[in-house]
Amino acid sequence: NGKQQIRRLGIAPNNRAINITTHKHQGPRMLGLLKQGVVGGGSSADDGAPAVPVKEVDLSRVVRMQLGQQSRRFVKARTKQDTTNTPQSLSIIYRRSANSTKDKLVKTMKKGTQIVMDAGEDSLDLIIPSKSDFDELRRTLEDLLAFYQEEEPCANPDYAWIQYHLVDMGKSLGGGGGGGNNNDDGFCIRTTCSDWVALCKRWNAPVSKGEATAMYRAFCESLAISNSQTDGLEMFEVVRLLEVLRQRGLEVSTTTTMASTSEGGASATTGVEDPRKRLFKRIAQSKSGATQAISAEEFLTFMHEKQNETDMALNDVKDLFYQLNGARVSPQLEDAISVISGYTRDTTQQQQQQGEDVSWEREYITWEAFGRYLLLESNDVFDPDRASPSQSYMNEPLNNYWINTSHDTYLRRTKESKTADHKKTDLQSFTLALYRGARAIELDVWNGPAGNPDPVVRFGVTSFSESTANKSSSSNSLVFADVILTISYFLQSEPQSFPVILLVENHCSLPFQEKMARDIENILGKQNLLYRPDPSTKETDSLPSPAELRGKVVIKSKLPRKMLGKSVVLNDDFDDENRESTPPSFTDYDSEDDITEHVIGFNSTGSIKSPSPQKVTTDQLFQTARTESLEATSTANAVLLQLLDMKHQAQQSQNHADALLRDIGMSYDELKKKREEGSTDIVEEGTEVELCLDGACKVKETADRATEIAKAFGESVEESRLLALAAATEARSETDLFDIAREDLTDKEAVLAEANEELQEVSKSNRDLVEAAERALSEARTNREYAENAERRVMAVRGLVNRSHNQAVSSETVAGTADAEAKISEQRASEAEARYQKARSTAEKERKSAEKETKLEDDLGAQLIAAKKEVNEVKGAVSAARERADDAVVKADRLTDEIREAKSMGYDDEGSVAESSIIANEKSKERRAYIGEMEKALTDKLGLESSTRKLETTIGDLQRKAALQAKVAAYARRQADHSMSIADQLEEHALEEREAANLRQAARVNAKRGVESSDAVLTSTETQLAEAEKAVSEANGIAMASRQKAEQFSKEAEAVQDVAPLEENVMRAQEIRDTAHSIYESAKESKEEALERSAKAKQVHETNCVNLANLERDAMAELLHKESVQQAELLAVTACENARALSDQVDVLENTCKDAETVAKEKSGALDIATRYKEKMKRLQPVSPALAKLTLLDSCNLRNWEKSFRLPNYAIHSIPDSNVVKKAEQGKEEWKRWVEFNKTHFSRTYPESASRNYNPLLPWAMGCQFVSMNFIRNKFMLLNDGRFRENGRQGYVLKPEYLCNDANDDGALDCTRPRQLSIRILSGFCLPKSVEKKSSSTINPFVRVTLYDASPASLLPSPAFKTQVVEGNGLNPVWNTQEAANFSCLNPSVGMLLFTVYDHCDVTKTDLFIGSSAMPVSCIRQGYRCVSLFDSNNTRSGAMKYASIFVKVKIES
After folding, report:
1. Strand pairing of 1266-1269 and 1242-1246?
2. Which of 206, 324, 676, 1052 has the greatest CB tally within 10 Å of its CB?
3. Distance (Å, whole) CA 236 – CA 1438
4. At what angle do helices 618-664 and 705-908 cross, to 10 degrees?
5. Contacts of 1001 (CB under 8 A, 6+ apart)
6. How many other CB atoms are there within 10 angstroms of residue 932's CB atom?
7. Model confidence over 971-1027: pLDDT tens digits?
8. Beta bridge partners of 490
9. DSSP letters along 989-1004, please?
10. Alpha-carbon distance 122 to 92, whole Å?
11. Within 10 Å of residue 635's Cβ, how many Cβ atoms?
């Protein structure tokens, strides 16, 4: 509804959707500003809190993100409030779902009816006040969409397809993470039986509702799942069930094929196999003989031989396999490898452990992976390399490109009508056209409505009449500045876009042109989005390239010519006029040549100029030329009538002579010879021969009564002839006078109509001013009365305020006393409580201190006990060391004695000296050991005694500290007990004070209620007083404003324009018109009378001629009867000579007539030149220099190619499509001249109306850069979309070389290098229902393939091929036929191929459009390819995103 509302954005837990809600998102922040998680609403998920309304935009439905205020909601908001001060705006455009009308967020938030775009899209429109937040949100959304686009090609297409339909049915993606085995994508949608039935219906599967239900239940039984055990199948299980459904589709196709074959009488086939699987088996059996998997080498051979991709290497194949296998060995691949090579998982792991590099996911692919590959965009029949943008591709001059052009872009085009409405304009049409790829858009700019200085964009009819030149239409229109702002938003969203060219048709007056220039500068110039031509550029210099103009807007309009001056242009090439006008038959005259000359007249070849200025107006020159042309034409007609009359007389005379010669039985030569021989020299006496003026010869005999009657009647015939000639001359003169009077009357009536219109406009304006003044005066009186009533009400309310004030003062006195007592009591209670709290805090601190000191006392006691224990242990160790030393001393002394005894025994017995010496030595060693042990024990004893002394010292210190700490702790405990006692006493006092304060507080509350009651009354009365005073102020202000307004209107009404001069003009024009009308009526009456007299005179003359001839025959018969042979011969000779004389006069009149016709033709040619001169002078309009400085391309009319070749390189011709066909039909020379012109200049073609299109191949083949198309759904628009698929859909495609270079390539122009195409339609996948389909029945698809050639043969109907209809299967239809579409393309560099899929309805016998794909023949690849289908809006979104057909293509040069 155009209103701003606060919303929160976040990322769904599964990272695949954007959530919009009114509540806060809970969860960690991810990707900048957006948070991931659930939406907050309650303390927990099970706390009973109401569900929070959330709107979810799945990333798979997002079409684009566009900056600025381009959407319809923003446009609607601009009509309600000023949003230009909030530039931080963006819109997320996404596809509507079938469940959009059930959106809970829409209902809960009461947002009203959603605005739906024509392309089946909605928009999420955001305004972010903070610039930093806007930049961060923009980057976040861009990263999120980029992540999704990178992830999408790697995802399982079946998962994505099922997910799309489930979401479109209203199912939520959930939080992710659940699912089960093999659910790597984190989907947690469960599919119930009813969901499965709905999916089958949406997929156009060849199963009924009962069959789909039985299939679902059978699958669940195979998994040992009952309906009571689950709430639906998980995603990976639905994918497996989908394979079962596809097999069912093949079985149905088998049944259909068998039935059709049996009807044809041939043997029934055993089954229909998926063409992809049949191809897979053929490749797999080529070398290994196994059909479970394809090796990398086999796949490489297939790519080289069948797909003609010879640049692919084995490593490329392995990388592709790695991607198709999902960087892992799937169970299916493992099974296939085990069959092929005998390797198992265990042996593979053993090889990896042994250091061998085994990577089966890079060596083999199974049927599933191969089938997915065949439907990838990388295997599309349209070469992906040609679809990618190229930077070097865009460095040619601008005229070397075909440019995607939208015709009458401003008109609203709806999907329902498929046409454009001339009466409705739509700003959104510009956005849709630009995002569809248009880079040249058309603007018909007109003056704004009266009082509005802004130029507008609308549909209109060109008129240079003075009465309508500066008047604007009341039809629906767009403000020019809004259109420019929309284009700037697009360039902000797409800064890398190649230039947007504005094809401006300027119908504006000079002030509005100045406003146009300011709007362009303010909106585009300040943002550096405008291309300003270099004024130093020469007319023959090359134009800039699209790469140089990237991100800019280029203007096409009218530029002033040198011959016309710096501020004047000739508006003679508007589209609506070019459609109806025809080029002049003469080419030597161009009216631009004499616009600035001193023209004094015209001839058939041009204008007559004078070196010195002449005071002659254009109308005077035209009237002079018209008068001269009428006079010359009248003279030529008069001479022609004389010639016709003379020819009639000569013929009659010749007939009479022939009759006389027949009567005498001789020819003229025989008679002449006879007379020359003298046989007829003598004439009887009394015979008289007379030559009459009408050619009849008379032989006079005085006694002959017949000849006398013939002579007398001959004079009567001559007289009637003269009368008839005079009457015809008079009729021609009266007719010319009538024509002049009629033209004069028409002019006078036009003048009278203009005068009446001007009088009516001024009178209406005067009446409006007077009525406005009267209304303003009445309004002022009403407002004054209202203000006086408001002042009286203020006085009454003030009395109520005073009484309420006195009552409030009394209540406040009582309340004040109670409040004072309550405050004192509250203060005492607060002080008592503060003292208590302070005492309690002190007591608590002292308690903690006592506990701390007591703990220190206990710690010292424990340390003392531990030290005493350690001393006792050390003393025991000292005693033990002393005992060890004493024991060692005793043993050493004993050994000393034994040594002495042994030595003494050796002295006594000499034989045992050696033995005793040995014993003594051993005893000595043992004694030394005991002595060492003694020394060690003594050393330990000394060390332990030293430690004992230290410990005893420490114990003494601890004893002193413990005694001191015991005193400190006892004092702290006593002090804590004392503080606690004081705190208890203060607590009792504080409670007593608080009770007293509560009592006084209750008294204060009661008093305050009384005050509040009084205050409420006072406030109410004061509010009433304030409102009354405000009403008085507003009423006085309104009264003052209305009085001033009334005075202003009164002044304006007094100063209204005097209509007396206008009425006099009308009266004069009426009198002149009446005079002209009376003259016209008189001339008409005179003309009719003259014509009547002329007809009667002619009839009388013709009757007399017939009678005269009869009389002369009678006279001749009488003469012959009287045997007057000589007189008869003389009469015949005279008649022949008279006929010859009349014939000579006819020759003279014929020359005179030719001269008169030559003069009339000359004057008529001069009138044509004068008419064109007059029309051109009307079209001579001023142009804004500021606008001209911004214009690069100059629009000019096509007169002849010689003049066109001399135009500057930036000149552009506009030609209607009907003239394109005419030029093509004129032959090779005209074709070549147009091609040559387009190599250095520009051409634009456009359709006859906004509701139809034309074949764009013909103008493309002639090199036309701008082929304007109505962006409506038809086959020609599909061709336009296909043409600009090349170069990344950026709206610019480089023309073929023969249309760009200077050398004329006759071979290319004559189409001598054709290309043979053979296309077999094999199968289709995921075909959706047509948007035009009213019923929910399954579709019956068929495919039509059409070649559109760009050669002279393109004037003929385009060749097409149609497959048979597959009934009831849009899931995976198979066209099991060997028949192929064979085409011969004569001009493959321009020709195009169109694949279209239709749904055939047997009941209505209609074919409904499903999808299509158009592509240039030069971009087609051979081999087994998929054809990605597009909807009527040239998008692969929604259900169409997964639709394609599988084909086999052969190309031969």
Report:
1. parallel
2. 206
3. 22
4. 130
5. 822, 825, 826
6. 12
7. 888 888 888 888 888 887 888 778 888 887 887 788 777 777 777 777 777 777 777
8. none
9. HHHHHHHHHHHHHHHH
10. 8
11. 18
